[in-house]
Amino acid sequence: MVGKRLPRCRNCGCTFRADVYNRHHQQWCSRPECRRERDRARKRRHRRGRMAREPGFRESERRRCREAMRRLRSRRKRVGSAPAAAILPSVPADQLLAGLVSQLADTTDPGVVAEVMGRYAERGRLLAVAPRIRGSP
Ligand SMILES: [Zn+2]
Question: Of 32, 97, 103, 118, which has the fewest beta carbons less than 10 angstroms from its beta carbon?
C-alpha cells in the first residue's frame, strides 16, 4: 500500500484509511466529531430536499417553526419582565450572614456561631488592611 494516497476527511482534513468496499464513497473519517458532522450534513441535505419537493412538508415546517418562535418569545418576555424581588426574597443581612456562618460552621449553637463570626470579622479586617509587599502575588 506504499505510494497510494489516503483520502482526506471533509471535516477535519486528516487522512484516513477508507473501508475497502466503500473507498470511492467515503469522504469522512471515523472520529466521533466527524461522524456527527457527517450526520448533520446528511440531515440538512435531506431536509433541504424535502423542503424543495414537498409543499405540505414546507407548510407544516413553517407552522411548527412559527409556533416554536412564538413560544420562545413569550417565555423570554415573561422572564425578562419578572421583577428581581419576586425571584430573590429580601432578607435582613445580619440574619443571612448568621445563617451562612451557621451553615459553614455546621452548628446551630448561637455561641459557636457568634465566635466563628468574630473570627471571620477579624480575618476580614486583616485582609482589608493587608499591606501590599513588592514581589508577593
Ligand atoms: Zn475527520
Answer: 32
